[in-house]
Write a structure and sequence with these properties.
Elements (H helix, E strand, L loop, with lengths): L1 H17 L31 E4 L7 H6 L19 H9 L3 H13 L9 H34 L2 E6 L4 E6 L8 E5 L7 E7 L5 E5 L1 H4 L4 E5 L19 E5 L10 E4 L5 E4 L4 E2 L4 E3 L3 E8 L5 H4 L10 H34 L18 H15 L6 H19 L14 E2 L13 E4 L6 E12 L2 E3 L2 H21 L60 H4 L5 H6 L21 H14 L4 E3 L21 H15 L25 H4 L5 H9 L3 H7 L2 H9 L21 E3 L3 H12 L2 E6 L3 E6 L3 E11 L7 E7 L6 E7 L1 H7 L9 H22 L3 E10 L1 H16 L4 H12 L4 E12 L3 H10 L3 E5 L4 H10 L8 E7 L2 H17 L6 H5 L15 E5 L1 H7 L2 H12 L3 E4 L4 H15 L3 E5 L5 H6 L2 E5 L6 H4 L3 E3 L4 H39 L12 H11 L2 H9 L5 H6 L5 H4 L6 H25 L7 H23 L5 H24 L12 H5 L3 H27 L4 H8 L4 H37 L2 H6 L13 E8 ...
Parallel strand pairs: 15-27, 15-31, 27-30, 28-29, 28-34, 29-30, 31-32, 32-33
Antiparallel strand pairs: 1-8, 2-3, 2-4, 4-13, 5-11, 5-13, 6-7, 6-12, 8-9, 9-10, 14-33, 16-17, 16-26, 18-19, 20-21, 21-22, 22-23, 23-24, 24-25, 25-26, 34-35
Helix pairs in contact: 1-23, 3-5, 4-5, 4-9, 5-35, 8-9, 8-34, 10-34, 10-36, 14-20, 22-26, 23-24, 25-34, 27-30, 34-36, 34-39, 34-40, 35-41, 36-41, 39-40, 39-43, 40-43
Length: 1421
């Protein structure tokens, strides 16, 4: 056996001598789609050149200046501006807006004397005000960033000083590449650094990445190979190596490089050796590293792409209408220019109208008309609403404030509320037509509860555990108040928490004794005792409902049959069949060790166990095995002294991929050394081992009533163990194994210890880990079994994958093959039953390898890992060579409960006309069951299952289903789809509701370009679509397809990293701040804590935001057009000379001050319907989907109304004062005053809810106008010569005709709109007006009205359903039978179960099978 192992080791060392490698790279990496932060990074930014890092020490001074001296330091600056560049840079950015450029052009134009319309300063005023407001806002935002940067840059860390020869406190900003940094527990990492030393005896450093990706569970990082075996802290003065690595990039899941020693020997570096900036050291006393990336070159900063910016649909519509206003302005200016030219031509001989220039030159009428065109543009510039854009920004900030202040969004348990991360698309929340949702963690709680398992073909239903879960809801609030106490708000998640690690003493790092552990909290001066340490940081996925599992009595009884003789190497021939107990042992061992769970015990020093060669000694009895593990466990209880004889290891410490030190770990310490080491522990250790017999007795008599086993000597108590899992599935399986006294005790890079009740502590030599990925859909661990000394591969994964990897078995084979065949058949039935119950299923399998086989595989795997070309494909092939010919052990069923309020929310969203798609990676039966439980699929739905294995079959099947649905009038017209228009929901009164379930393979075909149109036509006929077995990439492709081809508003909601690409592709992305970290939240536009909050966010706030902003934008267009037309009508009576009947200051301030505040208040506070009514009547949301508040027709009607009102406002005063001797400003003052009343009262007419704030602002605007006019008329005698507004307002306020003109003009102007609103509310009220009427009723009357409303909505549906049912029934039944089979080459249809008809089709070009299955009932409990 040793020869092939030695060959593999020698060959590997030769490869490592001159080859750069990267450890732990996933075969297919989706990190480019799942980048943290704002924008999606489709490809990581990798530079071509490599980076050389040398120590920042005196011997390397020249080399350091050559390489590291050119790298950036650790100072960060996220601000845009400085004091010097603020004004020019801010102006430069603001003039990127077309509107600002337009008004700048007008300012410049007004400086041309030939076309000057106003005083130069007056024209500049609106632009200056707008630019100033935005500049102040930008400046305040930047100043907040500056303060944050200053605080971070001035944080202190310990950096090695080459002058002082010791570590000194320095600010983060002074850290440079090549510096040695020493960090203690709970310190935040200041820069990306390669880990060179850890006080952990195995060279492990635990980090928490919540500051980077929001995940609170611990992750392991490993000291560089060759440095983990050092007995003391790395000395920077003796460090003579240099590092060569890839240039800075934003890929968080990759780090390539090598460390080259002075003797040219190279050691590979991977991401497991890299500590990233922003992460926090946990459960590790101290670490030392060398900086490789600093400041803005760190991976965290390269992923910080700033806030997201999206343009809303309403904003795009408004921009289009601004262009229409520009066209209208050009027409009006051309009219003025043409009129002026004709006027001059007609009165050419009248000197009064045709004055020569000062030099005597007379301007030709044509040229004068050209000049007048530009003068009119300046005069009528208000037609383009410059203040609209500023008002929109202010309104959106106000809307966001009220959304975030809504107490209904507050989650007390998580201490979080809704987050609005995108500031400019709030109104899009009111126009959503398609909603794409993840399942796990989004619709469900992501609290994985172990429910059932199947072992060796026997199903164990765990009835006692099911009863516990049923009764749990009654006591859940009381239990979780203790167990799930929130540690703070999400925004504070990255702050240092109470320490959960050992105290760092002043002495040498290696000399911390176990006596100091009681004061582990005093390191930061907390003053708390050791008893508080376990509560200091709540582990993810560790609520009581997840951890407290009650064993099944039948399965527990079989544990009494477990003996060590099961693993004794048989000398006889292969047995006919394996005992069931051996399956049970392997099953639970696989649950305990086939994962990447980090075990942390705050009060227990971690100590590596030496492995004894069990194959070299005869195994006689259980007592000898227990005595052996007593010695091993006693050694683990000794204090962690680095000088205690730690065995050398030349293996690369990598916790997730290869265990390259396998060959050295085969060598075991002699028994004498073990005894000496044991004796060195002192009397304290002997005393602790003296209580072992009592522990054994308690464990033996524990029974079902006491599942929690007591801790072994030297091992932390089971109740004190903290499991840090990367996914809730892993945690659930580990807790399930613990319930059967198969407890995961510790994990190091080289071994994993499991305390098995009947066998004692078992320490497995960890040879290799193949991590889970979405391509293989499984993970495997390779271990050396401590009892049988065999190399065993434990694999867990999706049933669809594992079943294909099992060893070939036939009924005619050996008895062992027959046994496996039987187990496989029974397990498959159990899996189907679990899926129908809505449980998440996993298969557990194993494989026993000989040493020769493993060495051969390891040799090929090394070659794959060191290859440069096709590395991912070679690694996948290597995994396939290992994960085959598996022996099935059993399966698990884990329940992921629906979140509270999900069925009600989905029902409300359905009623609101939103089509909901569920995109999940789960298997078909589980997805359908969850979809039924959450009312995504209803009992009366016709369900079509699209599961094909070829493109041709997929096309044929979609066509057949589509014809059947079109026959039942469930689909919209085909022409509308081809035009890319929005597909309305299928008619509710058609008598047919259809749902589509499509698997990942069929989805792959449907997303191909040739089938996309047909796929969209099919989905448009369905009320709900469920995509199962979908990959993250497929999720984003589905969202992109629907959004781009149907041109509809899409919303994607998810909670995990696999949902990020889908969230970023949708028009609105919503992240659920659940248990899978914060990647989805950081990539989203909005974040909520539960799915049920979507109802109010969309139906209430979305509706309000859309309605408010739509009406406000229309109002801005209306008031600008209405007021500008007064100037335009006046041109017909002044020879189109470009003069104004109003003083220029009043003209500018009219839009800038007097009428700007009311629409802003309207846009923030308007409520056309109350929140309660919007939630009770979700159908009201459809008005936003159809853009009823802001249609093109609405825009033109608004402009026509503005033209009418301007005509009334101009000609009523005109005919009143016709023939009088009033001057120009005396005529213009009633026009301005009447226009003010008309414009403000128009807003009052449009408002559905008037508050005291509305009244204060409107009255304040009127008072401001009169005060300004009075003050301006009394002080400005010649402010704008030759104008003279002196005392005009004072005289008018004493004239009754003035009041009569204002009242008459206002009434006549608003009469048509008022009449229309009255008739609309009484004769043909819209649903919103009817709903508004309900708000005025008493609570009892309102509740009764809601019932009648809902009942009236169902009358049409019920009546039509009853009428169509008899006709449709005769057609539907053949569709599930021979008629459909005749249309296709193969089909399968499920018989109706209950009232639902499920048509399942499995179609392939060369395979056809008809099978019957029923739709699963909703999940129990």
């Amino acid at each position: 056996m040793t020869e092939p192992l030695q060959w593999a080791r020698y060959h590997w060392q030769r490869l490592m001598g001159g080859t750069n490698r990267e450890d732990d790279e996933r075969p297919y990496n989706y990190s480019s789609l799942l980048a943290c932060g704002g924008k999606s990074s489709q490809t990581p930014r990798l530079a071509g050149k490599h980076r050389v890092v040398v120590p920042h020490l005196q011997p390397f001074k020249e080399e350091y200046e050559k390489f590291c001296g050119t790298y950036v330091n650790n100072r960060i600056r996220t601000t845009k501006y400085t004091l010097l560049n603020f004004v020019p840079r801010n102006l430069f950015e603001q003039f990127h807006r077309a509107a600002n450029l337009y008004f700048l052009f007008l300012v410049v134009l007004n400086w041309v004397p030939l076309v000057e319309a106003f005083q130069k300063e007056i024209t500049m005023l609106p632009l200056v005000v707008v630019l100033t407001i935005i500049a102040i806002k930008d400046g305040l935002e930047d100043y907040r960033k500056y303060k944050t940067d200053k605080r971070i840059n001035n944080s202190v860390t310990k950096v090695y000083s080459r002058k002082e020869k010791k570590y000194l406190d320095r600010c983060w900003k002074d850290v440079t590449v090549g510096d040695f940094i020493r960090l203690s527990c709970n310190e935040v990492i200041p820069a990306d650094m390669v880990l060179l030393f850890s006080t952990d005896p195995d060279g492990i450093c635990h980090i928490e990445t919540s500051g980077l990706d929001g995940e609170s569970n611990l992750k392991q990082r490993q000291v560089v190979r060759g440095y983990a075996e050092q007995d003391s802290e790395v000395d920077p003065e003796n460090f003579s190596s240099r590092i060569e690595c890839e240039s800075p990039n934003n890929d968080l899941n990759r780090f390539r490089g090598f460390l080259e020693h002075s003797n040219k020997e190279r050691v590979g570096l991977s991401k497991e050796n890299l500590l990233l900036r922003g992460c926090t050291i946990r459960n590790t006393e101290a670490v030392v590293g060398i900086v490789v990336y600093a400041g803005h070159e760190t991976k965290a900063m390269l992923n910080n792409s700033g806030p997201r910016y999206k343009r809303s649909k309403l904003e795009r519509r408004a921009n289009t209408d601004v262009l229409w206003c520009v066209l209208l302005l050009l027409i009006m200016c051309l009219t003025g220019a043409l009129g002026h030219g004709l006027w001059l031509s007609r009165y050419e001989n009248v000197p009064f109208f045709h004055l020569p220039e000062p030099d005597g030159h007379v301007t030709a009428p044509l040229l004068a008309g050209f000049y007048m065109f530009w003068t009119m543009i300046i005069l009528l510039q208000v037609l383009i609403p410059i203040s609209l854009y500023v008002s929109i920004e202010i309104v959106k900030l106000g809307q966001i404030y009220f959304i975030q202040s809504d107490v209904d969004f507050y989650n007390e348990k998580m201490d979080s509320t809704v987050q609005c991360r995108a500031l400019n698309i709030t109104e899009d929340l009111g126009q959503i037509q398609y909603l794409f949702s993840d399942k796990t963690g989004t619709l469900t709680e992501n609290k994985m509860v172990f429910r059932r398992c199947s072992v060796a073909g026997f199903d164990y239903c765990h009835e006692e555990n099911a009863k516990r879960l049923e009764s749990y809801q009654e006591a859940i609030s009381e239990d979780e108040d203790v167990a799930d106490t929130p540690t703070g708000s999400l925004s504070n998640m990255a702050k240092p928490r109470a320490p959960s690690c050992r105290t760092v003493q002043n002495g040498p790092l290696g000399s911390t004794s176990s006596n100091h552990l009681a004061g582990s909290c005093s390191a930061l001066g907390s003053g708390e005792g050791a008893s508080e340490v376990p509560r200091s940081r709540q582990a993810a996925f560790s609520s009581p409902i997840e951890t407290d599992v009650i064993p099944d009595t039948r399965l527990w009884d079989k544990f009494s049959q477990i003996t060590p003789q099961l693993f004794t190497p048989p000398d006889e021939s292969v047995p006919n069949s394996l005992p069931e107990t051996l399956y049970i042992v392997d099953f639970f061992i696989a649950l305990a060790i086939c994962n990447t769970v980090v075990v942390s015990a705050p009060n227990q020093p971690r100590r590596k166990t030496r492995l004894s060669s069990l194959s070299g000694m005869p195994i006689k009895s259980l007592e000898e095995i227990k005595n052996l593990f007593q010695r091993l466990s006693v050694r683990r209880s000794s204090s962690p002294s680095l000088s205690a004889g730690k065995e050398p290891s030349a293996g690369i410490p990598n916790a997730f991929v290869s265990r390259l030190s396998l060959f050295n770990r085969v060598k075991v310490a002699p028994p004498v050394e073990e005894e000496v080491s044991q004796a060195s522990g002192g009397l304290q250790e002997l005393g602790s081992s003296a209580c072992l017999p009592e522990t054994e007795k308690r464990n033996g008599d524990a029974g079902i009533a006491s599942v929690q086993v007591d801790g072994l000597p030297g091992q932390p108590s089971t109740s004190h163990l903290c499991y840090e899992a990367e996914s809730p599935d892993e945690a659930a399986l580990v807790y399930a194994a613990r319930a059967y006294q198969c407890t995961l005790q510790s994990r190091t890079p080289e071994q994993v210890t499991v305390d098995f009740a009947a066998l004692g502590p078992l320490t497995f030599q960890l040879l290799h880990i193949l991590p889970f990925d979405s391509v293989r859909k499984r993970m495997s661990v390779v271990v050396r079994h401590p009892l049988s000394n065999q190399i065993v591969v434990y694999t867990k994964g999706a049933d669809s994958v594992i079943m294909e990897l099992l060893s070939a078995a036939s009924p005619d084979g050996a008895s062992l093959e027959k046994q496996q065949m039987l187990i496989r058949e029974k397990t498959q039935k159990h899996l189907d039953d679990y899926a129908r119950r809505g449980l998440r299923t996993l298969c557990i399998a194993k494989k026993v390898m000989s040493d020769t086989e493993y060495a051969e595989w390891l040799r090929n795997h090394f070659l794959a890992e060191t290859s440069i070309d096709n590395r991912e494909e070679l690694l996948l092939e290597s995994a396939m060579r290992l994960e085959n010919r598996l022996t099935l052990l059993g399966a698990t069923g884990i329940e992921d409960r629906l979140q509270e309020g999900v069925p009600e929310s989905i029902e409300a969203l359905h009623k609101a006309g939103i089509k909901i798609w569920m995109l999940t990676g789960d298997k078909q039966e589980t997805a359908v069951n969850i979809a039924s439980a959450c009312k995504l699929l209803e009992r009366d739905d016709q369900l079509f299952i699209l599961d094909t294995q070829s493109k041709e079959a997929c096309e044929m099947l979609m066509g057949t289903i589509l014809k059947e649905l079109q026959k039942n009038a469930a689909c919209p017209e085909k022409s509308s789809l081809s035009e890319g228009l929005h597909q309305p929901s299928a008619p509710r009164d058609s008598g047919l509701r259809a749902g589509l379930v499509i698997t990942g393979k069929a989805l792959e075909f449907a997303l191909q370009e040739s089938l996309q149109k047909q796929f969209l036509e099919l989905t448009a006929c369905c009320q709900a679509v469920v995509c199962c077995r979908a990959t993250p990439l497929q999720k984003s492709e589905v969202v992109k397809l629907v959004r781009n081809h149907l041109r509809v508003m899409t919303l994607a909601v998810g909670d995990g990293a696999n949902d990020v690409s889908m969230i970023q592709v949708a028009d609105i992305g919503i992240g659920i701040s659940g248990q899978e970290g914060m990647q989805a939240v950081m990539a989203s536009d909005f974040a909520v804590s539960q799915f049920k909050h979507l109802s109010k966010l969309l139906l209430v706030h979305g509706h309000w935001c859309y309605t408010r902003l739509s009406n406000m934008i229309l109002y801005f267009f209306y008031k600008n057009v209405a007021y500008v037309n007064l100037l335009f009508w006046y041109q017909f009576f002044c020879g189109f000379s470009g003069t104004s009947m109003t003083d220029y200051w009043v003209l500018i301030f009219f839009n800038l001050l007097f009428t700007s505040a009311p629409p802003v208040i309207y846009g923030v506070l308007e409520k056309d319907v109350s929140a309660e009514t919007l939630l009770q009547v979700p159908e009201l949301y459809k008005s936003g989907q159809e853009s009823e508040a802001y249609l093109p027709l609405t825009f033109w009607i608004t402009l026509l109304d503005a033209f009418y009102q301007s005509l009334v406002c101009f000609f009523v005063p005109y005919y009143t004062y016709q023939g009088s001797d009033v001057d120009i400003f005396t005529f213009g003052n009633p026009l301005n005053t009447a226009a003010l009343f008309i414009i403000l009262l128009h807003l009052v007419l449009e408002s559905k809810s008037l508050t005291w704030i509305h009244l204060v602002v409107i009255v304040g605007s009127i008072l401001a106008y009169f005060l300004f006019a009075l003050a301006f008329g009394s002080m400005c005698v010649t402010c704008n010569p030759p104008s003279n507004p002196y005392w005009i307002m004072q005289e008018h306020m004493l004239d009754p005709v003035f009041y009569l003109v204002c009242v008459l003009t206002t009434c006549v102007a608003l009469l048509p709109r008022f009449t229309y609103r009255v008739l609309q509310g009484s004769l043909f009220p819209s649903p919103l007006l009817r709903a508004k009427h309900l708000d005025r009723l008493t609570p009892e009357e309102r509740a009764e009205a809601f019932k009648k409303w809902r009942g009236a909505g169902k009358v049409g549906q019920v009546t039509s359903t009853c009428a169509d049912h008899s006709a449709a029934k005769s057609e539907r039944r053949p569709m599930c039978g021979p008629a459909l089979i005749g249309m296709m080459s193969a089909s399968s249809c499920a018989a109706e179960q209950g009232s639902s008809c499920v048509c399942e089709t499995a179609l392939d070009s060369d395979y056809s099978e008809t099978k019957t299955s029923g739709m699963a009932k909703p999940s129990e409990g």
